[in-house]
Amino acid sequence: MRFDVLLARAAQRLKAAASPSPRLDAEVLLCHVLGVSRAWLYTWGDRDAEPLMRARFEALVAARGQGRPVAHLVGEREFWGLTLKTSDATLIPRPDTECLVEAALARGAAEGGKLLDLGTGSGAIALAFASERPGWQVTGVDLSPQAVALATDNAAYLGLSRVRFLESDWFAALEGERFSLVVANPPYLADDDPHLAQGDVRFEPRSALVAGDEGLADLYWLAREARAHLEPEAWLLLEHGLEQGAAVRQALEQAGYSDVTTLQDLGARDRVSLGRWSA
Question: Which residues constitute the domain of residue 38?
Fold first, then answer.
């Protein structure tokens, strides 16, 4: 069977399985099996698929049809132009989080400084920042040893040697350390949030998704506790849900931060709230 026919059939199958991007999913999975680019598929789509390749591809399509994330099936995801290895031990890097990276870069324009990424997961935020700011010391921490191992592996793969990853319950392993920027994409979904039963989220670690107090508990805690680890005039940047901006801004203001504001992502949704610590 020709590749273009194989792709068309796979896309139809994934559409019937309610994939939000059936054609793209099919192309990414086939490129993974063949070890080629999507441009290659458009150029050589009239070639016949070998039986073994076809069997591997159809097995991946079946798994995707059951809801398995494409990033888990191929073992990687692009973020900020970087190819990151992925696993079911961490959240899958998402384009919305690039808003947090942009905000950090805008406030970390100096030649050097220290950035802390809390709950680093695959290391996406820390590594994206480090790729743009080679003069900075970048630290990522995560409670999960599997996440720390994955982030460390990603740093080595990308050749970003100035980044360190530590196993830590938030600030626990960082006693006495202060940073120019602290960023976090913490759990912010409520326990009964309907998104937990939808899409890729079903296959991601619940501990990285859900927080108490209607999803706000970790955001409130970080607003308070980060102050002890911020240098004078340093910034705290927190990613959150689209309806949580007002609550997070209030928490930052009550904790004594100045210049508090909320930034929107590419979909014009509240995504990142931040404040400057001047004490």
Answer: 3-68
